[in-house]
């Protein structure tokens, strides 16, 4: 019996609904495959927890998670209209990303059969892009400050931090990922035309790392024109590596191009497994949808799929991906974001049913 310890954070907004859906899928996998067990410990760290305690998580939250011996963390979206976003995000998600050195944010953006893209001419080639986002520093380093608040001479500084070690490791991850998953091209997303220090450095490191992977083709794209390329020629985009903020922006674009924010998953990885990695849909907490049972659970379920792959459960991961693909291809069950009227519950049931059918 394989046993995995998961820390589960339903978090905010539609989080509890999509996380419940994800856990239902895990239960179904256990039921169908006997040999695996996912022990989920739930944590109520969230905006509601903030309202109760004045913090998003206990002061020793990271230590608690470390002591828990978790194999992975599964999290719902974080953010509430009642609390400034920088408080909720720095209070939980960003602290975990940094504290657990989850330096890669892996974001596949694949147009699945049966899902409509807003692009008029999607081209003959399937859209299959992978964003590898630096997740530990850069624009999100959290370095800076404000002086003379409220005064006419107020100063606000948000410093961008690029280190050689962090830049190198995320680029190496991108090339390794490309090699291991049969991708041919790694695109360096940059802005070295205007940012003559950090981004020129970023390009140099990219060249140095690329030289160690002679079989992988590379190219370079300025981030602004990358948005145009993703829209006009998405079939030319394969794996790309981007800084923290650029990757954040491009992955929302990628999610929209591949059908819906309601489908897009992500993995915050510590590839060396010194710390647990965190899996989370990239969409927000969507307070307008809360309690209506209309949120698309696929982004969170697909994140579970990425978790299974990272945990080495290759077969379960393949089966879950197949189930997601089947449900979307058959188009019988579609949530609101996909132009349908199905509920969260119906979508989850459909995925579980597809798993069951495939297991027979
Ligand atoms: C994401 C989110 C976060 C980010 C926010 C909520 C801090 O947008 O995971 O893409 O910018 O990384
Ligand atoms: Mn984002």
Automatic annotation (TrEMBL):
Enzyme Commission (EC) number: 1.1.1.83
Catalytic EC class: oxidoreductase
MF term (GO), any: D-malate dehydrogenase (decarboxylating) (NAD+) activity
Domain of life: Bacteria
Names of the cofactor(s): Mg(2+); Mn(2+)
Keyword Metal-binding recorded: yes
The name this protein goes by in its record: D-malate dehydrogenase (decarboxylating)
